[in-house]
Amino acid sequence: MQLRRLIAFTLLLVFVSACKDVKPNEDTNEQPVVVKKEKVEFGFSEKHYEFKRDTIRKGDTFGIILDRNHIGYPKIFQIAEKAKDTFDIATKLQVGKPYTLLFPKENLSDSIKKPSAFIYQQSLEDYVVIDFKDSIQTYKGKKPIKYVEKTATGVIKNNISETLEEKGISYKLAYILADDIYAWTIDFRRLQPGDRFKVIYTDKYINDSIYTGVHDVKAAYFEHNGDSLYAFEFVTDSIKGIRDYFNEEAKNMRRAFLKSPVKFGRVSSRYNLKRRIAYYGYKIRPHKGTDFAAPIGTPIMATANGTVIESTRRGGNGKYVKIRHNDTYTTQYLHMSKQAVKKGQFVKQGDVIGYVGMTGNTGGPHVCYRFWKNGRQVDPFKQKLPQAEPIGDSLKVKYLEHVKPIKKRLDDIFFLQAEPKEKVNTITEDQSIQ
Ligand SMILES: [Zn+2]
């Protein structure tokens, strides 16, 4: 009985609020009764305010905008002065950013409409309200953010961006997979047709409606070159907010060294002690570096943390940088158009240390990457490179517990019928270049 009364009461409420939204002078006979949700933005209701939206234009100042809307100068100064502690309107308005003026509906019949609040949107999420309806109040606000967890699968035909695009998934996911998660284990320029992946990720929405792209990848699985690579996101230091990706055995997905010193280059010549070159009459001219061809000006990154021990120009090497990483490893980057670091400087993995060029002996723009282990030049692709910081023993148990249900979820995602694994045998032009 109680329940029935509750239902009846709820229905009545819906009906009452529905009636409230139907204006009396409208002919409502043929229209269905619609329950309208009161629209509230920045904490103000459209019921009480008219929203006038615009963007800051060149030459606009807070004073000019308000003056244009019939607020007089003594008042403008007063508002700006009062608002200053929270937000300095005089200096912080940026051309192109949206703003909203609120006009109280109670005054709309007045011959001159005056706004009672100015709202400036610094970003999609953040805004500042300067409310001068009665007393002057300034405060900052944030639009409500919603994260929606999703899963995706894909099979590579040509490259990952294309596969994601076909599925209507933001390209940001490709960056996260290629740069954050698998940069050390998979060379995304050498993906094979038939390589496939599954991901659990979150999409971010502002105000329920504005899609801002992939926010985060919680877990991923990639089949490449016969390997199955799992990656799980895990916070290793909640105070410092440090998170990393680890595999199913709690090993860090990052390595102490990047696979390549350039982002979108192509290996044009590998480390080869028996290389024969026509120019030298097919005599053996060992190549102890790895050449990455890339356009002039492409940033060259330090493949690991270390100290710059040389940044100079010499003979066939041209302009180069040499970095000492620790007692065991040293790397060198040749033929730069320009160096970006000085001797003695400490650099972090991924820092730009120079730009691709053609200085020294070189037939085309590339960076010759040399890799020393214990004073001997070796092939970086053949090294078992050290892992970046492993997960601590005390955290490892917690990590494995945390990952168990997520791994099961990943395993339970099936590849679609339209994604057969048998497609593998076609070789695209990209791979035949190597
Ligand atoms: Zn070389």
Would you kindly provide a written description of the structure presented here, covering whatever features stand out?
With 434 residues, the protein is an alpha+beta fold. It has eight helices and 24 strands. Strands 13, 16, 17, 18, 19, 20, 21, 22, 23 and 24 form a ten-stranded antiparallel sheet that branches. It has a five-stranded antiparallel sheet with strand order 3-4-5-6-7. The chain has a five-stranded antiparallel sheet with strand order 8-9-10-11-12, sandwiched between helices. A hairpin with a 4-residue loop joins strand 5 and strand 6. Residues 1-30 and 419-434 have low confidence and may be disordered. The chain binds zinc ion. Residues 269, 287, 289, 291, 368 line the site of zinc ion.
Cofactors, ions, other ligands: zinc ion
Report the portion of residues in β strands.
Answer: 25-35%
Overall geometric form: elongated
Give the number of DSSP strands. 24
Specify Rg, calculated over alpha carbons: 31 Å
Class by SSE composition:
alpha+beta
Q: How far is the N terminus from the C terminus?
A: 77 Å
Q: Can you give the mean pLDDT?
A: 83
Largest sheet report: 10 strands, antiparallel
Spans of 5+ residues with little confidence (pLDDT < 50)? Answer: 1-30, 419-434
Task: Tell me the number of helical segments per DSSP (H or I, 4 or more residues long).
Answer: 8
What share of the residues lie within helices? 10-25%
